[in-house]
Here is the input.
Amino acid sequence: MTIKDNLQTVLQNIPSHVRLVAVSKFHPNEAVLEAYESSQRVFGESRVQELSAKYDQLPKDIEWHFIGHLQTNKIKYISPFVTMIHAVDSERLLIEINQFAKKSTRTISCLLQIHIAKEETKFGFSIEECRQFLESKRWENLENVQIAGLMGMATYTENSAQIRGEFHSLNQFFQEMKSSVFQEKNYFCELSMGMSDDYKIAIDEGSTLVRIGSTIFGSRNY
Ligand SMILES: *Cc1c(COP(=O)(O)O)cnc(C)c1O
Here is the structure.
């Protein structure tokens, strides 16, 4: 199976209201170009250096999403061009992104990462922390970031009922915020959940953005 074939298969499994972020991390420019030639324009990367290099070398109409854990001292390398940052896990990071976006006279779409997995290692706000922060409206002063929605990763497990339950609670919280804090703000519309192994469950549970890597590009050599 080629990248083109894999991409077509994935796209056939995604309804039209869900967008695909093709996760190209650890894969070379040639792999990105093969997907690009099949009309894919949205790509996700999780390392700043790799994303910057790909941005420099690849077509400029690609929409780049940063999906990894972002350190504040590295924001400046991607703020001039990144379209969306998926895993904003603290107010401090959001404030820093706002400052760099302002320097570039841009507005950057950000998703707040919610910790839904029953694992210690995953970053993110708890639902309670996130609700408090959003209800505080402190983010309204940050004019160069737009909170476009939420993002979460399920536990790495074979137990699909558990995965479904985690995505379900994230969607419930997303809907709650959409109809309260963001009631008159239509830009709060994205729920980024679902990877190669769990994107079908995530779509069932309300995902609007799926981040899929290995199913399209093959396994990664770390
Ligand atoms: C790597 C990565 C993905 C893609 O994972 P696959 O299992 O290869 O589809 C999705 N989301 C995040 C945050 C990632 O780091």
